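REQUEST FORM: STRUCTURE PREDICTION
Request ID: SP-0412
Submitted by: Lab K.M.
Chain count: 1
Length (residues): 436
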Amino acid sequence: MPTSDKQKRTLRRVLPAAGAVLALGLSGCGAGGTGPNSDDDALTVLVEGGGRAELTPIADAFTAETGTSVTFVELPYDSLYERLNTELSGGDVSFDVAAVDAIWLSAFGPGMVPLDDMFTDAVQDDLFPSLVQEAQVDGHYVGMPAWTNAEVLYYRTDLFSDPAQQAAFRAEYGRELTPPTTWDEYLDVAEFFTQDTDGDGSTDLYGTDVKGAVETEWLSLVLQAGAEGMVLDTDGNVIVNDAEHKAALDAYVAPVEAGIAPAGATQMDWATAQNLFNQGQLAMTRFWAHAYTQIPEDSPVHGNVGVTTMPAGPGGPAAVPGAWYLSVPQATTNQDKAEEFIQFVFDHNELGLDTDLGLAATIPALEAGEADGRENLGALIAALDAPGTAPRPATDKWQEIVDSVLIPMLQEATAGGADTQALLDRAAEQIEAVVG
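STATUS: Completed
RESULT:
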């Protein structure tokens, strides 16, 4: 299945680290840069495809209210990164506002205008703590969250409500068939729903999937295991091979080891897993919350999908936020108008709910959407509000760590039969070399 721009937004592309390149050019990246516009009646906003969809209704309202036109420059995910890296390094930018993926903030934050005055107590009260934390680089707020995402649990309501399935589960496991709330329950339910539904002798329904080609889901399990950070602790020390990371990796690959996930886990990515679930081949999947409203009407599971938070581990419920932030480059000459636009996006955040992605960043906006019947937003709120939820490490080496260490490790682990502690020990050595 081709990967859409919406799906690219949640994928982590193979990108070079920005820190070293950016550091060379920031000394010339002051307020005196040329910028794209010389008047207050126009703004240029650099975005990825999903960002344009999210921001368009808000931009239209901004133009109607202020008379300032907003021009979007839309780029693919990897090209957006490259444009930001090149222009911020050179100190001469072609945009006034940029939509920045959370994992880029540490690299690009030093070239952005501090937005500290925007982060009032009232503003922070309307944001999830993990997003407030993530917005800070070197003690300054360098981006305002515009929309956010997190993984939740999708499950087939037609299967869970089937009296025959309920009776069979009760007989086998001695309890009622309900959406799982713990890792152990998750494995039991996944095992139960791995079935030959048409009686031809082959499994055609699996309990869940295992994604070896992406890292964020495993990182969520790391938090659920009770780890004091993901891969790195708050002081930058490598902790990827501690007991919590091992427990998370063991739990992550358990469906592969038990034969209750489809073959090909090493290459399973977001798009593949989403397709399997929408085709009716999975009873459950852990996936980004936005996908709930994107299940095709001709899908065999359409109208038969429930959504709740991911099952909790020993450390309780937790998720990894997938937020995008709006930032202002120091080199723009339209700083005041750019900040006015960002404040407008925050104040009218609920307009982003009426888009294909259907996401927002503020708690009031998401709560309003939940009240309108968007079941996925209730699960998203609960995931982002969980005490264990935390942003990814604030390091400009993060993308390099993911691409060169975490993904290869997960692919080896999901092949089956691996010594997970040995994999994590090797990963720790590799990450030490990356971070120095």
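NOTES: The two ends are 40 Å apart (CA to CA).
Reviewed by: T.R.
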